[in-house]
UniProtKB/TrEMBL annotation:
<dbReference type="InterPro" id="IPR012337">
    <property type="entry name" value="RNaseH-like_sf"/>
</dbReference>
<feature type="domain" description="Integrase catalytic">
    <location>
        <begin position="1"/>
        <end position="102"/>
    </location>
</feature>
<dbReference type="InterPro" id="IPR036397">
    <property type="entry name" value="RNaseH_sf"/>
</dbReference>
<protein>
    <submittedName>
        <fullName>Transposase family protein</fullName>
    </submittedName>
</protein>
<dbReference type="GO" id="GO:0015074">
    <property type="term" value="P:DNA integration"/>
</dbReference>
<dbReference type="InterPro" id="IPR001584">
    <property type="entry name" value="Integrase_cat-core"/>
</dbReference>
<dbReference type="Pfam" id="PF00665">
    <property type="entry name" value="rve"/>
</dbReference>
<dbReference type="GO" id="GO:0003676">
    <property type="term" value="F:nucleic acid binding"/>
</dbReference>
Length: 102
């Protein structure tokens, strides 16, 4: 079923991870947050490791600047299904909307 398209900024963010490798072979990860209305990149967090508590820290920083979204869309990767993220979302009335990977 097609994803609903927001009619204004901020009610729905999409989050996802990307990864690549440095010249020396070490892998690094990027955590991306995008506003679904205008496709604005709200955050790109880069590090060798980005655990769930760091994901929450990024989302909390964005929410302090822009307000909490109603929904956050993501696939069901381990950092995005962790208890710490679920608890944060519940505390702030944010619905985690898990979509099919790919």
């Amino acid at each position: 079923q097609p994803l609903a398209v927001p009619i204004n900024m901020n009610p729905c963010w999409s989050v996802d991870f990307m990864s690549d490798a440095l010249m020396d072979g070490r892998r690094f990860r990027l955590f991306n947050v995008v506003d679904d209305f205008n496709r604005e990149a709200l955050a790109v967090e880069v590090d060798l490791n980005i655990p769930a508590h760091r994901v929450v820290r990024v989302l909390e920083r964005l929410s302090a600047e822009r307000g909490y979204p109603a929904f956050i869309r993501s696939d069901n990767g381990p950092e995005l299904t962790a208890a710490v993220l679920s608890e944060w979302a519940e505390q702030h009335g944010v619905i985690l909307d898990f979509i099919q990977p790919g």
